[in-house]
Design goal:
With 241 residues, the chain is mostly beta strands. It has one domain (3-238): Jelly Rolls. The chain has five helices and 15 strands. The protein has helices at residues 3-8, 13-17, 78-86, 90-94, 97-100, and strands at 28-30, 44-48, 51-56, 59-65, 105-108, 117-127, 133-140, 146-152, 157-164, 167-173, 185-193, 196-201, 204-210, 218-222, 228-238. Strands 1, 3, 4, 6, 11, 12, 13 and 15 form an eight-stranded antiparallel β-sheet that branches. A hairpin with a 2-residue loop joins β3 and β4. The longest helix has 9 residues, at 78-86. It starts with a helix and ends with a strand.
């Protein structure tokens, strides 16, 4: 089976797992306590890159392992995973697969659609030569468009990036330079209200921006090229209605 056919055989299972009716329900925190070490996470679908559960100081966390990153290589079974997320619309998602190869992403299975509220995650950078990145993925659309707020340990900053029609570009770079040590846990948070995006690192505001439309889409985790980063406690807190 070719890479494309595998990617085409990855967007309907997740659509079945998470119906729109479940969107914006109760607050949830996703950890990896019950996941098998050395396997993909149960509550996230790795679309690009290698995402495996590992041990850190005795507890299970999620590792994006950039050591095996290769240009142009999507995650195993990508087609099936794309179909699991978007069903009949997965072909449009698949059209941009080559562009995705630089940016490992893992999409949450249980959050069908996220709009207003907070997204947060704990992350630890443990390695990477080209990049040392960790980010929150949101506004993920059926055609593969997405937004991410990420920290880059080679630049020491928080930045908002967009991926639209197969092309990635920077939206806004936070003005603060914040060096973080490898091997330390940190908190990244995104607050969304309509189209307004505010990002925080360890409780300090890093940037805010008004997107073109109200945020609405799937969510998950993001990384870049050969980054080796760990994630834990991915929290989704819908705004009170």
């Amino acid at each position: 089976m070719t890479t494309l056919s595998r990617f085409c055989a990855a967007a309907a299972m997740l659509a079945a797992l998470a119906s729109p009716a479940s969107a914006q329900s109760a607050a949830r925190t996703f950890d990896f306590t019950r996941d098998a070490v050395g396997r993909e996470p149960a509550q996230f679908l790795p679309m690009v890159g290698t995402w495996v559960v590992t041990k850190d100081e005795g507890r299970n966390v999620l590792l994006v392992d950039g050591r095996v990153w290769k240009k142009g290589q999507p995650a195993g079974g990508l087609a099936d995973k794309a179909r699991a997320i978007y069903g009949a619309e997965h072909e449009e998602f698949l059209d941009n697969v080559k562009q995705f190869a630089y940016f490992p992403i893992a999409v949450n299975k249980d959050v069908a659609n996220f709009e207003d509220g907070d997204l947060s995650v704990k992350f630890k950078m443990i390695g990477g030569t080209l990049d040392r990145c960790a980010g929150i993925l949101f506004n993920v659309k059926p055609n593969g468009d997405w937004l991410t707020v990420r920290f880059n340990g080679t630049e020491d900053n928080v930045t908002l990036w967009k991926f639209v029609n197969g092309k990635r570009s920077m939206v806004l770079r936070g003005r603060k330079s914040v060096p973080l040590e490898l091997g330390t846990w940190n908190d990244l948070r995104v607050t969304i209200k309509g189209a307004h995006i505010t990002a925080y690192l360890n409780g300090d505001q890093m940037l805010e921006y008004d997107w073109t439309d109200a945020i609405s889409g799937k969510v998950g985790l993001w990384s870049k090229t050969d980054s080796m980063s760990e994630f834990d406690a991915f929290s989704v807190i819908p705004a009170k209605r």
